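Good morning N.,

You mentioned wanting to compare the apo and holo forms, so I went ahead and generated the holo version with flavin-adenine dinucleotide. This is what I fed in:
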Amino acid sequence: MKPPSVLIAGAGPAGLVSALALARAGIPVTVLERAADLVQDLRASTFHPPTLDLLEQFGDIPERLKAQGLIARHTQQRDRREGVIAEFDMALLEGQTRHPYRLQCEQWKLARLLREALSALPHARLVADATVDGVEQGADHVVVTATVQGEATRFQGDWLIGADGAWSAVRQSLGIEFEGFTYPERFLVVSTAFPFELHLPRLSWVNYISDPDEWCVLLRVPGLWRVLFPTPPQETDEEVMSGLTIERRLQGLLAQPRPYEVVHRTLYKVHQRIARQFRKGRVLLAGDAAHINNPLGGMGMNGGVHDAFNLSAKLIEVVQGGADAALLDRYERQRRTVAIEYVNADTQRNKKNIEERDPATRARHHDELRAIAADPAASRAYLRKTSMLDALARADGIA
Ligand SMILES: Cc1cc2nc3c(=O)[nH]c(=O)nc-3n(C[C@H](O)[C@H](O)[C@H](O)COP(=O)(O)OP(=O)(O)OC[C@H]3O[C@@H](n4cnc5c(N)ncnc54)[C@H](O)[C@@H]3O)c2cc1C
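and this is what came out, ligand included:
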């Protein structure tokens, strides 16, 4: 008899982590990925401590990521006019994580390492240029229809993980609502090799910079600074992406006699949405297919990786350990609750604070941050929350 197999739609972080965890346990997996090759675009760039702890299950992957990234021991809350408001030392998390820092490293580097590890396992298959079009399920199987290199193809498995991103064809095919809203403004991310650290006093590698008119986030990855700006809804895509507008925004952040050299620019819509169900029969949703949020706090990719570890551990118990499939409902209870109570709530609060316009509310928030930073116990509690340790503990506590 053939061993039970798992189909996975999407080779992003959530799909690849799930695939590797399942394949390492000996479960045959087939990953269907729309792109023909690994995409090296500007997306998430922060690995939170518990994500690195979890990735240790895959041997030296955290170490290899570290070798390609930068360790950010401190994070800062700044204000455009006032400079540093509060700095947090992640070393305060020692004893609560084996990685008491944020690792600044592009998400495609994780995808590359996961793909490499997957390719060494004979019962794992990654089919590129394979777009999932639809899903049907019976009592004991799932059938995925996909277009593989232009040809309609059917794949059958025992379970399916929909990790095919925000516009998930799996989620849509199952008719699962994606509840929430889309922000009116779009977010612009530009990257430049300009050495901001030599010009902005005491800059750390992770900086959230509030401003009533134009807040921004300044994040370092190896060799580059990434700057994230909100853009007003009335600006057209052409205006936002034009060299002149980008130059004006960067000059507004730090005036320089010479123009900035911009290496990448990306404009994207931002949403706060959560799938009404994470499980429907033999199909499970993970990562952006299940929940999306704004990038303030760097929780999107990390949350997707946390989903993938939670889900794959339960699927292994069901497929190999004889556990009842109802265990998979616990995955939904745990990860959907955390997506609502932590990831979605925290990222919305982060956005509200960084863009606050009312002077009294801004001043109060800055005072709160200063008070937290001055108190090690309060700082530790703040860091447990911002580094997603609390969210994982909350999920563990849900039966
Ligand atoms: C422009 C941009 C910038 C971002 N910046 C940040 C950031 O700064 N910080 C942060 O934390 N998060 C950021 N995010 C979010 C972060 O990248 C995601 O949360 C993360 O990629 C989620 O991983 P995932 O595996 O769930 O989905 P994805 O990484 O989106 O992977 C889904 C995969 O499925 C594939 N796919 C899609 N449809 C199909 C289909 N029908 N059939 C087969 N395959 C399919 C896609 O090609 C993709 O490879 C950003 C996202 C975007 C789009």
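The mean pLDDT is 96.

Happy to go through it together on a call whenever suits you.

Best,
F.
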